[in-house]
Design a protein that fits this description.
Length: 316
């Protein structure tokens, strides 16, 4: 239990650091945010309008006062309102975040289902035909950018073969079947890099575990190869694989931006791109903090999973 409390405390500290860096970076951007916002479209705002907007945004207060107000709002879950449509940032994120998380979860499930068995089999049959072909495919998948793969999937499966729709979104409650169909292509696109990485790590970890002394001892005792693989190899090999999986799931949060854009999936990418173009700073800050918090939460979950796989970790 003290180990878990320590990890949670470290995660909260890192979240405070991220929030502070984002706040300072926002105020280091060249130019007056109020003037930049009012001058969108080439208009020349007058000094009165700029001063009025600065007062509305709280930019005329001292920096330390703005910082304390920023942290106080975060503690209440208040991310402010969008400067474009005056809509609460938190409400917009809560609406779109589940769609992004669903896409990440679907891509992760696809990757794990494919990569773990394939990596294990490739390690057991190292040097064989399957190992060579699977390793080559993994290298190819890592080399292809996600937006290129997404475009190729649309050209092949949607426009040429007409097996799948090119993109879009339907709520799960409205039409479950069509929702899953629309989810499949972006999930496959986002899973490609994770599948290749998890496959390579699984193969390397299983090969390393197979050469350990305790595995040779288990074989000498007469245990079947399947039992040795299940009890003495896979369990130990999962710890480094879990590390890579946790880190890669965090990076998927950034990779979904291109995938959602290509497949017109209404996740966090749409308000983020719109906020960047329109200089909607509260929306940008809210989404950045949300993604950062999710990244830290995923890493915390991976730490807890390590402890479940190897109880010695929680005692260290």
């Amino acid at each position: 239990m003290p180990w878990i409390v320590k990890r949670i405390g470290v995660s909260l500290l890192l979240m405070w650091v991220v929030a502070t860096v984002v706040f300072l970076a926002l105020h280091m951007v060249p130019g007056d945010p109020a003037e930049l916002l009012l001058s969108t479209g080439g208009a020349m705002p007058d000094a009165y309008a700029i001063a009025e907007l600065r007062e509305k945004l709280g930019l005329n207060r001292p920096l330390w006062e703005q910082y304390l107000g920023f942290l106080e709002g975060l503690s209440r879950g208040d991310l402010g309102n969008s400067l474009v449509d005056d809509y609460p940032v938190a409400d917009e994120i809560l609406l779109r975040l589940p769609r992004t998380l669903e896409l990440i979860l679907a891509g992760t499930i696809i990757s794990v289902i494919i990569a773990l068995p394939a990596g294990t089999f490739a390690a057991v049959r190292a040097g064989g035909a399957f190992d060579r072909v699977a390793s080559s495919l993994a290298a190819l998948l890592q080399a292809v950018p996600v937006f290129v793969l997404g475009t190729l999937l649309i050209l092949l499966l949607a426009q040429t073969l007409r097996w799948m729709p090119a993109g879009g979104y339907v709520p799960l409650a409205q039409d479950p079947v069509r929702h899953l169909v629309l989810l499949s292509l972006p999930a496959i696109a986002i899973a490609k890099g994770l599948t290749a990485t998890v496959f390579r790590m699984t193969r390397a970890s299983v090969l390393d575990a197979l050469s350990r002394d305790h595995v040779r001892t288990a074989r000498a005792k007469g245990l079947t190869p399947q039992r040795v693989l299940r009890r003495h190899v896979v369990r130990n090999a999962l710890i480094p694989v879990t590390t890579v999986l946790g880190l890669q799931m965090g990076t998927l949060l950034g990779g979904t931006v291109l995938v959602e854009y290509v497949f017109n999936w209404p996740g966090l990418s749409t308000p983020l791109l719109r906020a960047v173009e329109g200089r909607d700073y509260p929306m940008v800050v809210g989404i950045v903090l949300t993604v950062s918090g999710l990244f830290l939460l995923i890493n915390l979950a991976m730490d807890l999973l390590y402890a479940a796989l190897d109880p010695r970790i929680s005692r260290s």
